[in-house]
From TrEMBL:
Entry-linked Pfam families: Beta-prop_KIB1-4
Name of the protein in question: KIB1-4 beta-propeller domain-containing protein
Domain KIB1-4 beta-propeller: 47-270
């Protein structure tokens, strides 16, 4: 799909061949090209145009990097990149979170970044950034649900974000709940499951045997809105990265490809396999033998390096 005022495309970034593993068949790989730089763990690589860039987020099959006053959005599978205009800041700043609101080909695709003190929005293809933020601090995560953008801040306050014709952020009143107070959970992911907007929450920064996730569904039918605890995901599975700057995904009827419903999947760096946690049951490890692993330890954090992430084939441009 083409759209007007397409941003500059950078095809000169050196890439390295990588593989995407098919979760349904670990012996099946898909060719892809990842930008060549030490942030991917390559310590002996030659100089790269990405030198100095740091990982800031991943969504819709794209990696988002930042350096000083610049952002670079890179297609996971082709390495083709899109550069943003300079950020409207006086001095070099760090970007704590970055995300797309839609695939790059969408005529209404925006990049949102969190620079610590506020949010900045860039409509892909435009020549400038727009600064908009809630009064008490920036949005930390954003998702698009039923055509509308929703975000949460560090205090789990909920916001509706209008992207057109101009950026407008409005807080949605939510009834206070002791189950989801901010000090109860150190990590949270917003994820869309069909007609549900869910928040997946983890108590503490580490996944170990016996730890459980909690899932809450947003109910907008009442005023104020409610976060209702979900006891079962029914025929859905959720996929999260150990770095919550990467977009969380969901899949309906995972049994079709050999997966399990009512589970939260994440990647275990030590075993090089994913683990699946069924809601209401102890954490289990899924390796080649699919047997229970009593010694799982997964740290949930953030790094300048890109962590393993989940993608759907429909998000990507596959190599031929």
């Amino acid at each position: 799909m083409c759209f007007p005022r397409r941003p500059p495309i950078n095809n000169l970034v050196r890439t390295r061949p990588c593989h995407a593993t098919n979760i349904a068949n670990q012996d099946t790989y898909q060719c892809c090209q990842i930008p060549l730089h030490s942030i991917f763990g390559e310590n002996n690589t030659p100089p790269s145009p990405l030198k100095g860039f740091r990982f800031s987020g991943a969504s819709y099959g794209h990696l988002i990097f930042s350096r000083h006053k610049s952002c670079l959005v890179v297609d996971v599978f082709t390495g083709v990149s899109v550069s943003s205009p300079k950020l409207p800041v006086i001095k070099d700043i760090g970007i704590f979170y970055a995300a797309l609101t839609a695939p790059l080909a969408s005529p209404n695709s925006h990049v949102i970044v969190d620079i610590g003190s506020r949010n900045l929005f860039w409509r892909v293809g435009s020549r400038y950034w727009v600064g908009r933020s809630p009064d008490d601090g920036p949005i930390k995560q954003i998702v698009v649900f039923k055509g509308r953008a929703f975000g949460i801040d560090s205090d789990i306050r909920l916001f509706k974000v209008q992207l057109t014709p101009q950026i407008c952020i409005q807080e949605i009143p939510v009834m206070e709940s002791s189950m989801i107070r901010k000090w109860h959970h150190s990590d949270r992911w917003l994820v869309i499951c069909g007609d549900m907007l869910l928040m997946v929450a983890l108590r503490g920064p580490i996944i170990v045997t016996g730890v459980t996730f909690e899932v809450f569904r947003l109910d907008l039918s009442t005023k104020p809105a409610l976060w209702l605890k979900v006891e079962k995901l029914e025929n859905w599975a959720i996929f999260i990265s150990t770095d919550k700057r990467s977009q969380a995904l969901s899949c309906m009827n995972p049994e079709i490809w050999g997966g399990r419903s009512n589970c939260v999947y994440c990647y275990n760096h030590d075993s090089k396999h994913w683990v699946a946690l069924e809601l209401g049951k102890p954490l289990q490890g899924n390796g080649p033998t699919s047997k229970f692993n009593p010694n799982i330890f997964i740290f949930m954090g953030r790094d300048s390096k890109v962590q393993p992430m989940w993608v759907f084939p429909s998000m990507l441009s596959f190599c031929r």
